[in-house]
Amino acid sequence: MTGGEATPSVAVFGAGVMGVGIAALALGRGVPVTIVDVDEERLGTARERVRAELRLAHMMGALPRTGPAGELRLAGSASAAADATWVIEAITEDAELKAAAHREIAAAVAPGTARITNTSSIPVDELAGRVPSPADLVGVHFMNPPYLIGTLEVVRGPRTGERAMAAVKELLSVLDRKGIVVGDGPGFVTSRVLHRMINDAANVVAEGRATVEDVDALMEGCLGHPTGPLRTADLIGIDNLVDSLTVLYERTGDEGCRPSELLLRKVAEGDHGRKTGRGFYEYGVR
Ligand code: NAD
């Protein structure tokens, strides 16, 4: 923790799938949260979406029902993060947008504040090279949904400093998460392995070798995958998955990461998964 604040607090950038999930996790653990998003519409529905995630987390027993919940604030600009103990950036998976957001965040927060990126695939050092005080930048790859999955990937870039690592350790302790520290590079460990597999699963369906349901049933029944790769794609958001695959493909040249035509078609048609009500499967309106 930095600055000796009385009440540690989190600023979360991005009111999307992950920002809302991370906010619910922190609030459920009694930590006040400020969510910052540039999209007014997203911000307008954020409070209700956080409430829905908290309800679900309580129903599943993933967060304690007792104890005070943190207070939620919503804001449209980075200056609202000025007093935050930790900043977690969970905005669109785009290196340009993220670098610009991190410059704004660095200008708004107290010097030495840990600036965490929740990127799925952009190397931390690629961002660190484009922002002030790169030692304060560290990757924490929360899994979706953040309140349910207790283990996450901590990405220590070559320029990440000890102070940022210590701040992450403290945050994970407050949030009751287990972090596994991995080296930097496109997709780190989890996205490098998982996203390529999901892409292959989409290609298998596109080739007509098996249905969506059968691919998932095989991966669940034979290999113990908890939700199947294509249901996982819907949970992640197919638009975000394609962005991450593009990052991986552009930085590794691995043909297995070139986004499947089927995934690209679903993005173009607006079938982004759970968040739009339809992806590989149909969902009730969220
Ligand atoms: P999303 O598309 O659901 O939400 C992104 C949000 O960021 C949008 O509300 C957008 O308005 C906002 N945004 C864009 N630019 C901004 C800025 N400059 N300042 C503030 N807000 C801004 O995306 P998501 O699925 O929540 O993913 C967010 C990040 O988390 C990405 O880096 C993604 O790769 C990563 N991630 C996603 C998952 C997942 O399962 N979806 C899991 C782990 C990590």
Could you provide a short overview of the structure?
The protein is of the alpha/beta class. The chain has helices at residues 17-28, 40-59, 95-108, 124-128, 162-175, 190-206, 212-221, 229-236, 238-252, 261-268; strands at 10-13, 33-36, 72-75, 86-89, 114-117, 137-141, 151-155, 178-182. Residues 1-5 have low confidence and may be disordered.
Topology, element by element:
Layout: E1 10-13, H1 17-28, E2 33-36, H2 40-59, E3 72-75, E4 86-89, H3 95-108, E5 114-117, H4 124-128, E6 137-141, E7 151-155, H5 162-175, E8 178-182, H6 190-206, H7 212-221, H8 229-236, H9 238-252, H10 261-268
Helix pairs in contact: 1-2, 6-8, 6-9
Nicotinamide-adenine-dinucleotide binds next to helix 1, helix 3 and helix 9.
Question: What does this molecule look like?
Answer:
The N terminus is likely disordered. An 8-stranded mixed beta sheet has the order 3-2-1-4-5-6-7-8, with helices on both faces. With 286 residues, it is α/β, with parallel strands linked by helices. It has 10 helices and 8 strands. The longest helix has 20 residues. The chain is globular, with a radius of gyration of 18 Å. Bound molecules: nicotinamide-adenine-dinucleotide (NAD). Nicotinamide-adenine-dinucleotide (NAD) binds next to helix 1, helix 3 and helix 9.
